[in-house]
Amino acid sequence: MRDPLRLIVVIIIIATTWLGTLTHFARAEDKMDSQTQIDNQTHPYIGMWVTADGRIRHELLPNGRYDEARGTRKSAYQGRYVVTGNHIDYWDDTGFTADGDFIDGVLHHAGMILYREN
Q1: How far is it, in rounded angstroms, from Cα 65 to Cα 58?
Q2: Which Gene3D superfamilies does this entry report, sorted A to Z (predicted)?
């Protein structure tokens, strides 16, 4: 009798995790869709952001799009972004979502630290 109960518990945990992930994606997509292709964004973060070693280069464009280069691979990732205060949400053209925060003039994104390029 314990084995069926364990199976039910595992199924509930997996379903809950899966639904939570879908909810996160849906919220990110809704936020991005409501602000798609915003022309002439006025936040102070437009421009090039680069890791200390120069390997990752993030260009935040004024039209709400971004272009990320990795190593020698130009335009490795492209998509939309929305800045709310000091927080940034990304929606990659392939459907991947990510976010980050600007803290003391530095972009903290996906475990990376990017600095504004002068």
Answers
A1: 11
A2: Uncharacterised protein Atu4866, PF11512
The C-alpha angle 63, 101, 96, rounded to 5 degrees, equals 65
Radius of gyration of the chain (CA): 18
Q: What would the pLDDT profile of 67-96 be if each residue is shown by its tens digit?
A: 999 999 999 999 999 999 999 999 999 999
Domain parsing of the chain, residue ranges: 1-118
Q: Which pTM value belongs to this model?
A: 0.67
Element (H, E) at 34: helix 2-34
Displacement of CA 70 from its chain's centroid (Å): 16
Rounded to 5°, the CA angle 113-17-101 comes to: 20
The CATH code of the domain at 1-118 is 2.40.128.290
